[in-house]
Amino acid sequence: MLHRLFIANMHVATVFILLVIFVSMYRGEVTVDIDKSVVCERESVTLTCTVKIPNVNPPTFIHWKRNNEWISSGYNVTVDLNAGKSYVYINSASTLRDGGNWQCTGGSFSGTGSAGQSIQDTGTAHLLISARATATIKDKGRLLFTDGMVTNITCYTGTLDPNVSFTWYLDSTDNVPPEQTSGVIDGATASILQLTSTKHLNNKTLYCSATNQCGTGNTDNITLDIRSILESPSELILDRLSHNSVCIKLKPGFDGGDSQRFIFEYSVDNGTWVTAPIVELTKEGDVLNRCIENLIPDSDYYVRVIASNKFGSSKPVYLALRTSAAPLKSGGNDHKENSTVIALVVCLCFACCKIYWSYHCGDLST
Question: Beta strand pairing status for 246-251 and 287-292?
């Protein structure tokens, strides 16, 4: 009895071993290959599925999935069962439409009905589609800085792209500012430019360039608007001087990027200052003219000028002067006064004679 049971168990084990060998022999090998190591947006790419099944040639089916879903009929797919290959042709690759995991399942089915045997395997490849690098600076148009200020300007790609490189340009591709660092900001690869604003950068243009294996993208140009504390007028020149007025010429200094006005003040002791009444400045080229009126003759004065606008006031520039003495009365006026006196004397004499004549003539007639 035991002998028969042992023989029966050996038969079962033999059948199990043969089944395992059969399945192992007929398990296929499927690989998926991509014809490019780097696939960029809007480029063509071909995926190739190769099916190899030992002792079965050729396979009887090859099917494709993308992200675990059967691909649509919109894809250009060819199948060559004799060669054990299938191809997917993508003419203009798109990340949203084509990117992701591609699975190819291939195998064969032998036999009929419940006695049939299916042998298949699946290969997988990940299709990464890279976009051409883009670059964006959030600030648009003009960037306003104060002279001497150190600021950070950030250039974003919009995606996390470890292969991107950045370059900043100032006015031209030959003028690359230093102090550039790269990193990840807000989930995107970015470059940070540390810029020290100085007056020589005023009105220059700045832009950023981002490059990856698929191309280069540039930001829009931005204009640097460097504002600073006003400079004092570069020259203060005495133009004309009289007994009661002084006229001054001045050359304005740097205006800090905004229109400026000039405050004229005068003092007799260099301590208490009086602001001159507002008078329109006249301009001759880059020179401004201004006169201060109603000064005291033959007196010492100090005049100072201060430039001012919304950024502040400049340091004053000074000018010391002395008005001339008041002019003497002219001889023509003395002659007129003397003539008036003479006329009065003549009139008085004539009146006296008339009175005398009337008195004496009247007595004789009586």
Answer: antiparallel
In 3D space, the residue among 189, 167, 161, 163 whose CA is nearest the CA of residue 180 turns out to be 167
**Rounded Cα distance, 236 and 313, in Å:** 17
CB 278 within 8 A of CB 264: no
Question: Do 29 and 107 sit in the same domain of this protein?
Answer: yes
pTM for this model (two decimals)? 0.48
Q: What is the pLDDT of residues 72-86, one digit of tens each?
A: 888 999 999 999 999
Rounded CA separation 149/226 (Å): 9
Q: Is the link from the previous residue into 58 a cis peptide, with omega within 30 of 0? A: yes
CATH code of the domain containing 211: 2.60.40.10
What is the rounded CA–CA span in Å between residue 345 and residue 263?
Answer: 57
What single letter denotes the amino acid at residue 141?
G
Tell me if 223 is assigned to some domain.
yes
What pLDDT is stored for residue 97 in this prediction?
A: 92
- Rounded to whole angstroms, the Cα distance separating 262 from 250 reads 10
Q: How far is Cα of residue 7 from the mean position of the Cα atoms in its chain? A: 88
Q: How far apart are CA 140 and CA 159, in angstroms?
A: 20
Q: Please, which residues have CB within 8 angstroms of residue 135's CB and are 6 or more apart in sequence?
A: 155, 156, 157, 166, 208, 209, 210, 217, 218, 219
Domain tally for the chain? Answer: 3
Of the pLDDT bands very low, low, confident and very high (cuts 50, 70, 90), residue 199 is confident
Indicate the average pLDDT of the chain.
Answer: 77
Residue 95, pLDDT score: 87
Local structure of 269: helix, strand or coil: coil
Provide φ and ψ at 254, rounded to 5°.
Answer: -60, 130
**295: left (phi > 0), else alpha (psi -120 to 50), else beta?**
beta
Phi/psi for 91 (5° steps) reads: -80, -40
